[in-house]
Hints:
- Helix content of chain A is 76%, strand content 0%.
- Chain A is built from seven helices and no strands.
- Chain A has helices spanning 9-41, 55-81, 85-117, 125-146, 150-164, 167-177, 197-238.
- By secondary structure, chain B is mainly alpha-helical.
- In chain B, 72% of the residues lie in helices and 0% in strands.
- Chain B has two helices and no strands.
- Chain A binds chain B through residues 9-10, 13-14, 17, 35, 39-41, 43-44, 49-51, 53-54, 57-58, 61, 96-97, 100, 103-104, 107-108, 111-112, 114-115, 213, 217, 220-221, 223-224, 226-228, 230-231, 233-235, 238, and chain B through 1-5, 8-11, 14-15, 17-19, 21-22, 25-26, 29-30, 33, 36-37, 40, 43-44, 47, 49-55, 57-58, 61.
Amino acid sequence: MNLYKYASPATFYPLAGKMIPWFAIPAAILFALGMFWGFFIAPTDFQQGDAYRIIFIHVPAAWMGMFLYVLMAIYAGVGWAFNARLSSMMASAIAPTGTLFTAISLVTGALWGKPTWGTYWAWDARMTSTLILLFLYIGFISLHSAIDDIRRADRAAAVLAIVGVINVPIIYFSVQWWNTLHQGATIRLLGKPSIAAPMLTAMLIMLAACWLYSVAVVLIRLRCIILEREQNASRFAEVGV
Amino acid sequence: MNWPDLSMGGYGFYVWGSYLVSLIAIVWEVWSLSHRKKTLAQQQSASNSVPTSVLRESANETSS
């Protein structure tokens, strides 16, 4: 089986269509399970009471915002370096979903900050660098839309995406590098998590749901982008541009 | 299994507000994508000037 043929938008288009239900349906099931676990199984926190339950959407959304940015930069970089159209289309398809998750993490963070810190917003390192991530996503989308020649737009946006990747480790390590109002990492790459098992389970289920949801909507958007670009190419070919 | 206190111990506005905002964002994304798909399908059926294999296949999918 030749997998390289799927690097062509026309060949990947039907495959993407077949893949969507395999991600969308489990995403819906896991969202429901994660909410059930978070509200019915996970106990009330002894310090923050029930306000901590915002964690089940806030942390997965914040992680998705960062993961999707790195993924978007990789696809944009591959599209730029190897002139791979599908990779650049994938980067464009990821950007709005990454923006959405980053915005959700900022809004839910503000709603969590008010009852626990007494303020919706503070210019601390974690929050400010996450806000910069949102601006980077918006910048990527705006720059891409501002250039008429699609392939030039892909290349220009790829440069922005790659340069912006530096912000992701800054967000992750900001709570260690600076004295921030934001709490430290709940889950570490090495070492034991600092929350109880039922809370962690609910959070991981919601994270899996967010991943599956992201793949499904990115594939739907990718199919739209493939069609739009093919339509534009046909129209330009017709008028001899 | 514990039945949750709907007032969330006085934090209901913040907890339910967070989930409501997230739900609205997700529903909006799914709705806008489905609208984009429909618009594309309409453009295809209105125009017969897009004879690529991709577009033919998409037309078959949307008509079935």
